[in-house]
User: Which sequence fits this backbone?
């Protein structure tokens, strides 16, 4: 039984209980959220017990990291270190996007090692195996696609990005309207190429019920891949993107009706003044399903700093209703991130999520900021260290600071010290 | 003649014309903005080697980097390396916030070495000198304070940050309402200490006309600093902050009447959902005077990463109307920035400013995004790097995170979305 079917039957699962406790909300709130499709708890029935997270309306905003090998850099050891690190750094979920080397091995290792929700994009493996076996991505068969989904689901993957919301209506609109960067989603690109070459509708759209059967069997949360997400600010909120979102909305309704947990992936490159409209449109068209966004990047011009452009977009998006932020690292658009890049990406996304939680009035978030402010006022360095987003970094810098209100310039009659006494904080 | 009095008389100064050319607007647009006080051009008449820069409504969001001698270990050479780094990273302005050491030399050499507008906070030097002379800055006389202000203006400083609005009644309000963190601004804290010790009103408020006389003489732009800027989210938009802003609004009016260019400094620590209100309030109370925000950071807990927290706040504030972003470095709250952190701080603030310009539809902003994205689609790496906000870093990362001899990048390796789609959509890479 999937979480959503349990919720509809009024049955409280251990996953719901854990999520309610972690969020400090009534478990009934979680149950109702899941039943209505506004909250998901990604947890494959085959997966071991782990730190489940609830994603959706009324909950703390969650952060996802991406790891995985690529065809150019297939260092499983480095990916394993990233995996351990992102969890320590406070990510709520991670996705293994491996496309190089032993893809099955990397996924199984990830599922074994991680104690947070694990996602994947099965079309990557299907496409790469098609190249190996059939010579090209376009030689991939429908069976290849569904087999990849089934295999990964059976392994225990908790949520899967699947680009079902891409069909010929969307592609035609893209061709008619024209775009600056066309399709930037890798899965979307594979499928677009496949569809145009074979002149066949996207099987993941056409045979959506078959997909739902597999996902339901394992309670895999469907994350509707944003095949047509804008890859530059100029393409944001264009006809193709909106068409894709309308299709996604239809598929959300079908998934929810079938008892499959579902969320929707979102952009991408979005100028700040488009963010609120983007989120509202998704919430309206997709029946309040959780929105999982990649960024959003507030400008295209900052390669090397896209963790920052994403923190800007992610914070605004979170404040207006996005539920789940996928991190973006400084290496985005330039290459495969190093461990240091991964760290920067995680922290930037967590800052964005926290800023949005504050804006949404999340009480634990406000409590933490207040404690930090009090620690600063009382010059309590240890508390400043433990409350900061990266205690280790803070410890290294604050270690040799002197804790007093006056500076190096003044003596005991320091003016700032007099002011501090007046306010009762000396 | 100040820029403001020229503008009021309908005169387009050479500085206005140069600013107009850099911004791609008409000189008349600049003149009108300066006349109305919604644009300032900080440019001391004593300054020789400056590229005039306009700050205000309808112009590109500008960025300022702060450097300065601090503590016993401060060195002019190190601070100069930071200035160089900030300028290379594209800062529009420098503030020399030296609090100790040879403050005069630092400032004078900075004025010669840079071509951006340069700002200072004279109260710091006044504190340092009074401490040396009397053992404590609370013994400083009002005349000594004004002597420092005049000295800095006469040296050619283009804008002076002064806590003119931090009056005794505001200090009392801060105490009554129980601010979490009443002492955030370094200059503000020392000023408040002086006021309390001497039981005297803030001299920068009481003798405001003296400041205006100095400012008019040299055409120094005054930047009214907020002694009550919130230092944590919980204090944002509290009574003390807002009351100070009301007072500052009155001081803005008096400056304009005196022919003195004026802008207003702002927070600080502001929750994301209060940014727009903060900027709207400043614009309303200060009659459209340029708003020079410090960050703002959107959470208190991002120590070590406050350049990112500030980029979020800066972008949203500038989108809402803030004009000038003072950078925040990664070392804010935990130490002094090194050269690399200065560079990153400037770029983070520039990203925020550009994101805002894009959201506001400022001419040219979308074009930059468009050109870079087209280069990305074309997999034209040379052009992507040249158009990047920090080409040096983009190039370095491309080299170290990818095999830069391939057409795509190591993220997707052989499976580059751009390549796959270009092939099957039948678009040649150059025609999209």
Assistant:
């Amino acid at each position: 039984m999937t979480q959503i079917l349990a919720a509809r039957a009024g049955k409280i699962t251990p996953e719901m209980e854990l999520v309610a406790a972690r969020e400090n909300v009534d478990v009934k709130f979680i149950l109702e959220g899941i039943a209505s499709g506004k909250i998901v708890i990604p947890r494959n029935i085959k997966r071991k017990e782990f730190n489940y997270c609830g994603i959706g309306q009324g909950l703390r905003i969650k952060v996802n990291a991406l790891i995985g090998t690529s065809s150019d850099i297939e260092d499983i050891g480095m990916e394993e270190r990233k995996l351990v690190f992102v969890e320590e750094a406070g990510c709520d979920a991670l996705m293994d996007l491996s496309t190089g080397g032993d893809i099955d091995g990397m996924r199984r290792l990830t599922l074994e090692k991680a104690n947070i929700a694990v996602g994947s994009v099965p079309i990557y493996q299907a496409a790469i195996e098609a190249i190996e076996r059939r010579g090209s991505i376009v030689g991939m068969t429908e069976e290849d696609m569904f087999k990849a989904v089934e295999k990964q689901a059976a392994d225990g993957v908790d949520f899967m990005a699947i680009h079902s919301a891409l069909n010929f209506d969307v592609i035609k609109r893209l061709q008619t309207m024209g775009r600056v960067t066309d399709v930037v989603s890798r899965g979307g690109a594979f499928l677009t190429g496949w569809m145009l070459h074979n002149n066949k509708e996207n099987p993941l759209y056409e045979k959506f019920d078959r997909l739902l059967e597999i996902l339901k069997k394992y309670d895999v949360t469907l994350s509707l891949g944003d095949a047509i997400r804008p890859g530059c600010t100029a393409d944001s909120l264009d006809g193709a993107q909106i068409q894709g979102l309308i299709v996604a909305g239809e598929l959300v309704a079908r998934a929810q009706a079938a008892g499959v947990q579902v969320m929707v992936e979102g952009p991408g490159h979005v100028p700040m003044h488009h963010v609120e409209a983007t989120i509202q449109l998704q919430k309206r068209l997709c029946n309040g399903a959780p929105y999982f966004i990649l960024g959003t990047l507030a400008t295209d011009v900052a390669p090397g700093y896209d963790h920052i452009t994403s923190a800007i977009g992610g914070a605004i998006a979170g404040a207006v209703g996005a539920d789940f932020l996928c991190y973006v690292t400084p290496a985005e658009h330039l290459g495969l991130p190093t461990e240091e890049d991964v760290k920067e990406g995680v922290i930037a996304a967590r800052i964005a999520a926290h800023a949005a939680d504050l804006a949404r009035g999340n009480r634990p978030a406000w409590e933490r900021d207040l404690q930090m402010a009090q620690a600063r006022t009382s010059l309590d360095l240890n508390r400043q260290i433990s409350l900061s987003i990266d205690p280790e970094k803070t410890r290294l810098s604050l270690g040799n600071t002197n804790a007093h209100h006056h500076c190096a310039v003044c003596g005991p009659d320091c003016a700032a010290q007099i002011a501090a006494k007046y306010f009762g904080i000396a | 003649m100040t820029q403001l009095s020229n503008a009021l008389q309908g005169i387009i100064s050479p500085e206005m014309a140069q600013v107009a050319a850099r911004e791609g607007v008409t000189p008349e647009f600049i003149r009108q903005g300066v006349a109305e006080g919604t644009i300032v051009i900080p440019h001391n008449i004593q300054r020789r080697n400056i590229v005039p820069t306009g700050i205000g409504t309808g112009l590109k969001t500008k960025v300022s980097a702060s450097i300065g001698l601090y503590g016993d270990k401060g060195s002019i050479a190190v601070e100069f390396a930071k200035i160089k780094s900030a300028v290379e990273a594209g800062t529009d302005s420098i503030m020399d916030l030296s609090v100790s050491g040879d403050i005069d030399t630092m400032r004078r050499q900075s004025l010669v070495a840079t071509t951006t507008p340069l700002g200072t906070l004279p109260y710091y030097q006044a504190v340092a000198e009074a401490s040396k002379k009397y053992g404590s800055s609370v013994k400083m006389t009002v005349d000594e304070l004004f002597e420092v202000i005049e000295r800095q203006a006469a040296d050619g400083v283009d804008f002076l940050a002064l806590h003119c609005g931090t009056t005794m009644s505001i200090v009392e309000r801060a105490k009554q309402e129980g601010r979490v963190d009443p002492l955030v601004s370094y200059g503000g804290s020392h000023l408040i200490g002086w006021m309390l010790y001497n039981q005297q009103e803030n001299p920068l408020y009481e003798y405001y006309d003296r400041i205006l006389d100095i400012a008019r003489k040299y055409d120094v732009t005054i930047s009214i600093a907020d002694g009550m800027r919130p230092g944590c989210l919980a204090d944002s938009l509290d009574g003390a902050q807002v009351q100070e802003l009301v007072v500052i609004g009155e001081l803005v009016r008096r400056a304009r009447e005196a022919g003195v260019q004026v802008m207003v400094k702002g927070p600080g620590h502001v929750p994301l959902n209060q940014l727009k209100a903060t900027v709207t309030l400043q614009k309303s109370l200060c009659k459209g005077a340029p708003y020079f925000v410090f960050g703002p950071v959107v959470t208190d807990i991002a120590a070590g990463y406050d350049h990112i927290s500030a980029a979020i706040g800066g972008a949203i504030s500038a989108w809402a109307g803030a004009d000038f972003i003072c950078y925040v470095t990664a070392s804010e709250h935990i130490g002094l920035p090194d050269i690399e952190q200065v560079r990153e701080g400037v770029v983070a603030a520039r990203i925020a400013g550009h994101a805002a310009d894009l959201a506001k539809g400022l001419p040219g902003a979308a074009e930059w995004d468009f050109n870079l994205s087209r280069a990305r689609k074309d997999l034209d790496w040379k052009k992507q790097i040249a158009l990047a906000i920090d080409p040096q870093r983009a190039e370095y990362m491309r080299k170290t995170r990818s095999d830069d001899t391939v057409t795509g990048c190591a993220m997707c390796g052989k499976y580059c979305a751009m390549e796959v789609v270009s092939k099957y959509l039948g678009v040649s890479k150059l025609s999209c």
